[in-house]
Amino acid sequence: MTEMNDEFKIISVPGLVNWIFLLLVFSIITTIGNCMGYRHPISESLIGMIILSLIALSGVWMENNLPFKIPSIIYIIIIGFILAFPLVPTSAIIIYYVSEVEIISIVTVFLAYVGIGMGNSWDEIRSLDWKALILTMIIITALYVSSGIVTQFINL
């Protein structure tokens, strides 16, 4: 990305193409997992993922091209909220297709991507102190156990 003044930066064409490619691959993998694991129709899942990807891409573009210092996640939330707001004509379509995508399908692909990213930086991970490793294991275990407890209460 190239810097313009100190106020805002413009996302480059190659950067935009990289985002589009990443979101396309992410959408395809998520759609496949969503169809295989949750039996949602492939066409509706793919449309839902494309909608989510376009909202995410719009938020990233807005963060980099608008003169406000607002993180892209805020833009993404606002765009999603506006498009799905009941009084907006797009709400029924957006809600229908996005509801065909299970959140766990998205999270699974995202965590796999994060894992691959961590695998590429093993040297940095090895340089961490042993205390960081123990703390990480405690956090992962606590999240796993607490998720199991919450799931048990929900299933009662």
Describe this structure as you would to a colleague.
With 156 residues, this protein is mainly α. The chain has 2 domains: 119 residues, no CATH class; 35 residues. Helix content is 76%, strand content 4%. It is built from 7 helices and 2 strands. Strands 1-2 form a two-stranded antiparallel sheet. A hairpin with a 3-residue loop joins β1 and β2. α2 packs across α3. The longest helix has 26 residues. The relative contact order is 0.10. The N terminus is likely disordered.
Question: Quick summary of this structure?
Answer:
The chain has 156 residues and is mainly α. Helix content is 76%, strand content 4%.
Give the helices and strands as they follow along the chain.
EEHHHHHHH
The domain tally reads 2
Using only C-alpha atoms, the radius of gyration works out to 19 Å
How many helices? The count is: 7
Query: Count the strands?
Result: 2
Briefly note the structural class of the backbone.
mainly alpha
- Which regions have little confidence, pLDDT < 50, spanning 5+ residues? 1-8
The general outline is globular
The strand order across the widest sheet is 1-2
Helix-residue proportion: over 70%
Mean pLDDT across every amino acid position: 85
Strand content: under 5%
State the major sheet: 2 strands, antiparallel
First and last CA, distance: 50 Å
Oligomer: single chain
